[in-house]
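pasting for ref
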Amino acid sequence: MQLTRFLSSSLFAVAVFGAIVSVDVGEDGFVYNPDTITAAPGDQVQFSFYPQNHSVIQAAFDSPCVPLSGGIFSGFVPVDSGKFSEVFAVDIMDTDPIWIYCGQTQHCGSGMVAVINPPSSGDGLDTFRANAKNAKASVPSGGISGGSFTEPGSGNSLSSSATGTTTSIATSIATSIATRNATSTITGNVTGTVTGTATVIAPTSTPALPGAAAAIVVGKVGAVVPILLLAGLLL
């Protein structure tokens, strides 16, 4: 008698990493460079700090230079020379505009503002900057929030071994596992497109449960990509 068992341990764990978007803070004076940033969900914006002492603070569009409750705050980052050794990394969850400013005295009023994912129509960064002119900046009362300090580039540090769409990635995973266990069958439903790279990690020892395996997909998310792969063992 043949029974097909689909085990919860047979689910492939798939992690999708986005692109890193770099922003220089204060390298060219009281500016963010670039000051208009486009980042997709899954991307990570990394702020690099230059002399002398700057910050990244989130504001509401209608209240420039005033911290948004529960918003992004890097704290102040004093730098004597060169570039600070770590970056302030912010993970992007959606495409809603994120308005930011520097909370150092006179910096916001001098135009040190930026936006992540500006609106496609209506008022934009020029209006936000104009409204901030000569405003007195304030800072959050709490500590760092909405991001964390990390090594530059660490948000997308995994190496690559394959490229293509989710279809070819799924094929690579299936081939790897089928090679590992010739009696396993692979079924799945793959939608969307991933451009980037993929690394398939096969078990280095016999899994505790049949069909158990792991895979990591590394690349920029081009769409919402649900990937469900089940490995069944014929007994």
